[in-house]
Amino acid sequence: MELARYIDHTVLKPTTTLEDIRQLCMEVVEYNFAAACVPPPFVKLAKTFLGSTTSKVATVIGFPFGYSALEAKVAETVLAIVDDADELDMVINISALKNNDWEYLEKEIATVMPIIRSKHKVIKVIIESGILLEEEIIKCCELYSKYQVDFVKTSTGYAEKGATVAAVQLMRRHLPQNIQIKASGGIRTLAFAEELIAAGATRLGCSASVAIVKEQLIKS
C-alpha cells in the first residue's frame, strides 16, 4: 500500500505563514502525497509550488466551525474555484444539525453542489463526527448520499474529538460505495492510519504525514 497517496498533507493553523506553505508543498512533492490542504488565502501559492505534479490542492470552506452564512460559503466556494483549488473541504452547519434543522442543511448542500459540479471540482463534506450521535452521523450519510458528494469527512481537527475507527465503520455502512470517506483529526501514527484505512477511509487528513510515511518506510 502506497500510504502517501491516501494522505492530504495539511496545514490549517491560524498562524500559517508563507514558509509553512512552501515547506508543506515541498513535502507533498517529495513524498507524493495526494494533496496539499491549505487555508484559502494560500491556494494560488500552493498551485504554483506544486506545478505540474499529480498532487492536488485542497482548501477549506466554512472552516472550522461551519456556522458561516450560506452566502459566505457560496462566496468562499467561488473564490476557491477562481484560485483553482482542486478539492474543497466544506464544514456543514453543525449548529443547524444540533438544532435538528435538516431543511437548512439540505438547502446548504443543494446550493453549493451545482457550483462545484459545474467546475468539475471535488467536494469533501465535513460532518464533525466526534461530536455527533450515531443517529446524526447516519442521517448525514443519507443526506449527503442524496447529493452525491465525493467524500464525507469525519472532522476538522478543531473539535474535542477527531477521527475514530468506529465512526469510519459506521459511515462506510451507511454510504454508497461510490462516496468515499476522509478521516481526519488526531491521526499521528502509522498504526492509527492503517486502522482507519482498514475501516473504510480512502483519504486521510494529517499534519503528521511525513512522520507517518517515514514510520511505514522503517517498518517495511
From TrEMBL:
The gene is deoC. This is Deoxyribose-phosphate aldolase. Its main location: cytoplasm. One of its GO terms (molecular function) is deoxyribose-phosphate aldolase activity. InterPro entries: Aldolase_TIM, DeoC, DeoC/FbaB/LacD_aldolase, DeoC_typeI. SMART domains: DeoC. Pathway: Carbohydrate degradation; 2-deoxy-D-ribose 1-phosphate degradation; D-glyceraldehyde 3-phosphate and acetaldehyde from 2-deoxy-alpha-D-ribose 1-phosphate: step 2/2. Keywords: Cytoplasm, Lyase, Schiff base. The active site is at D89, K153, K182. Pfam families: DeoC. It catalyses: 2-deoxy-D-ribose 5-phosphate = D-glyceraldehyde 3-phosphate + acetaldehyde. Its EC number is 4.1.2.4. It is an enzyme of class 4 (lyase). It is found in: Cytoplasm.
